[in-house]
Design a protein that fits this description.
Its main location: membrane. This is ABC transporter permease subunit. It comes from Nakamurella alba. Residues 275-313 are annotated as: Disordered. The chain has one domain: MetI-like (MetI-like fold), CATH 1.10.3720. Helix content is 71%, strand content 0%. The chain has helices at residues 2-34, 37-40, 67-102, 105-119, 123-134, 138-164, 168-175, 180-191, 193-216, 228-239, 245-284, 320-328. It starts with a helix and ends with a helix.
Length: 329
């Protein structure tokens, strides 16, 4: 069993390093893209459809624009769009989860049925319908994608919030008279940390895919904005005549980004579990001194101790008898 755990831990560590390495390259590309915005949209009729070379690393498109500059600036757009949607959608989803998880049953039931109705539609189709209703464009597409993300966060986190209300540390907080908002912020939110971070990473890749899909069919970012999906569409129009690089490089950037984010989301639970195990070993003290057996706080889904829990407010004297017994033994 220990060998299996060691093998799983090593595999997770390698996966995390690969994910971080890929993300480092992607972020570097995005930063470079911020300085290449003018070059990304600069038309040069003398350099139309040039293949990859020393002057143009990724070649040029049918208007002579540098494909590398467009992919780099498109990376900035993708990361910025993904972070915006995840921050807004994740924040609203967390707020809804706390209200439903700690609120009355009738409110929980009503909101959950509404979210079920929204989630009955595939995320891409719902975002497409919103974009078609309110007009094409990058901003409209991001609003539509945000609406599809909120229920995903809310439903997942609501289940964990409900579970947190049955934990001893929440019951203790209620016993000493803490208000529901204070319990939510101080105790339940730390309990949700692991699940929330995994959802952030997992949905980030979905957001980028949906945005690229909308741009691919002409409903997202509009020309000349160098969004990956729109660039892949341009590349398809030239692929049959041999200019493969126009669509291949944006596709590779999209693939690498989504794979890196998914690898990261898969690695996060194991990473949090290992950190929790190290904290538990440090808390138990050196070998031979024993353990006090005192619970120090709530554990999230991955077993991480949350800061600021109710049990942390218990006076330190409560742990003295156990420590004394250990010393006498």
């Amino acid at each position: 069993m220990s060998r299996k755990r060691a093998g799983g831990s090593a595999g997770s560590s390698v996966q995390l390093r690969v994910a971080l390495g890929l993300l480092l390259v992607i972020v570097a590309m995005a930063v470079a893209g911020l300085f290449l915005e003018d070059q990304a949209n600069k038309v040069n009729v003398a350099s139309v459809l040039l293949p990859p070379g020393a002057d143009h690393w990724f070649g040029t498109d049918n208007q002579g624009r540098d494909v590398f500059a467009r992919v780099a600036f498109g990376t900035s757009i993708a990361l910025g769009s993904g972070l915006s949607v995840i921050a807004i959608g994740g924040g609203l989803g967390l707020a809804i989860a706390l209200v439903c998880g700690l609120g009355p049953r009738w409110l929980d039931t009503t909101v959950m049925r509404l979210l079920d109705a929204i989630m009955a539609f595939p995320a891409f189709l719902l975002a497409l319908a919103i974009t078609m209703a309110f007009g094409t464009g990058l901003v409209t597409a991001l609003i539509g994608i945000t609406i599809t993300v909120i229920p995903v966060f809310a439903r997942t986190l609501r289940a964990e919030a409900r579970r947190a209300t049955t934990e001893p540390f929440v019951e203790a907080a209620r016993t000493i008279g803490l208000s529901t908002p204070r319990i939510a912020v101080k105790h339940v939110v730390p309990y949700l940390n692991t699940t929330f971070s995994v959802q952030l990473a997992a949905n980030f890749g979905n957001v980028i895919l949906i945005l690229s899909g909308l741009s691919f069919i002409g409903m997202g970012a509009q020309p000349p904005t160098p969004e990956w999906g729109a660039m892949i569409t341009d590349g398809l129009q030239n692929a049959l005549t041999g200019q493969w690089w126009i669509g291949v490089f944006p596709g590779i950037a999209l693939l690498v980004t989504v794979v890196a984010v998914n690898l990261l989301s898969d690695s996060l639970p194991d990473l949090r579990a290992r950190r929790a195990a190290r904290k538990a070993r440090r808390r138990s003290g050196p070998a031979g001194t024993g353990s006090t057996g005192v619970t120090t706080g709530p554990s999230g889904p991955a077993g991480t101790a949350a800061p600021g829990d109710a049990s942390a407010e218990v006076p330190a004297a409560a742990a003295v008898p156990a420590a004394a017994l250990v010393k006498e033994g």
